[in-house]
Write a structure and sequence with these properties.
Elements (H helix, E strand, L loop, with lengths): L1 E4 L6 H7 L8 E4 L7 H5 L4 H12 L3 E3 L4 E3 L3 H20 L5 E4 L21 H13 L4 E5 L6 H7 L5 E8 L23 E6 L5 H19 L3 E6 L16 H18 L4 E5 L5 H15 L1
Parallel strand pairs: 5-10, 6-7, 6-9, 7-8, 9-10
Antiparallel strand pairs: 1-2, 1-5, 3-4
Length: 298
């Protein structure tokens, strides 16, 4: 996990592998998490789900959900660390240790619904961190922007009846991609109606299509909402070279989206951003895209 501060400091290994110019490098502060506390997880998930995951791991592992969420004996403890990484990022940002923070942790979280693990996700990391920010720092308005290529169904399920969290998800059209949710008509329920914005994109869409969606829908809705904290579900599996979907984003596209989000954070959140790693399954393009995301946040 890394917090971003504003001092220049070159990273020769990035310059060699990624072509990052010396003047564009940023200094990172490492933030060490510890396993999340039970009460922090219970803010989003019932005890029955926590016990199920813990028991399955204690029995040696196996497969949860419908075959796409395997666990090993160590998965429960690692999932607690992953959730805690997002919490630690919130702590650092809200206490002004850093202005922006990135949780580089796995397993991811945005598919985990309150009562069901799915899609490689055990606990809903970003939702747990958002609830933590509300409870500990009294943050009244949070926006979560999810640009993972797959719909963040778990995050939506947590907040769909909650008007204090605006959830925006850009993803490959659900009729063509896992998990099959995230249609435009899914806008929230009850008090949360209108606080879920799903933007499904046709397969093959890339930097231009995402830029148009940001300029035409994402940024205006964020500016209308005026959040106090911006959180990002940063999935990089929409990359043209990623094997799990059919979008054509480039490294430049991820930097572009992040810069647009950072501009809104500067205008409404005092610059505060907490970003949490979600998908990304081509390790070479994942590494490059994450670096561009960090540079854009800085």
């Amino acid at each position: 996990m890394a917090g971003l501060i504003d001092s220049p400091d070159p990273f020769p290994e990035f310059e060699i592998d990624l072509g990052i110019k010396k003047q564009d490098a940023v200094k990172l502060k490492e933030l060490a998490p510890k396993p999340a506390e039970l009460q922090q997880i219970l803010a989003v998930h019932p005890r029955s789900l926590i016990d199920l995951i813990q028991h399955r791991c204690a029995m040696g592992g196996g497969v949860l959900d419908q075959g796409d969420t395997p666990v090993s004996p160590e998965s429960y403890e690692i999932a607690l660390l992953s959730a805690s990484s997002a919490i630690r990022a919130c702590d650092a940002v809200m206490k002004s240790e850093v202005k922006r923070a990135f949780s580089a942790a796995r397993p991811p979280g945005h598919h985990a619904e309150p009562d069901r693990p799915m899609g490689f996700c055990l606990f809903s990391n970003i939702a747990i961190a958002a609830r933590y920010a509300q409870q500990v720092f009294n943050v009244e308005k949070i926006v979560i922007v999810d640009f993972d290529v797959h719909h963040g169904n778990g995050t939506q399920a947590v907040f769909e009846a909650d008007s204090s969290v605006l959830f925006i998800s850009l993803h490959q059209h659900p009729s063509t991609c896992y998990p099959g949710s995230g249609f435009e008509w899914e806008m929230g329920v009850g008090a949360g109606k209108g606080y879920t914005l799903n933007i499904p994109l046709d397969p093959g869409g890339g930097d231009d299509e995402y830029a148009a969606a940001f300029d035409g829908k994402v940024i205006p809705r964020m500016e209308q909402f005026k959040p106090q904290l911006l959180m990002i579900s940063a999935g990089f599996d929409g990359h043209v070279d990623d094997p799990l979907a059919n979008m054509t984003l480039t490294d430049d596209g991820f930097e572009m989206m992040t810069r647009k989000l950072a501009d809104v954070a500067n205008a409404h959140c005092g610059g505060r951003i907490v970003s949490v790693l979600e998908g990304g399954y081509n390790l070479r393009t994942l590494g490059r895209s994450v670096v561009r995301h960090l540079l854009a946040m800085a």
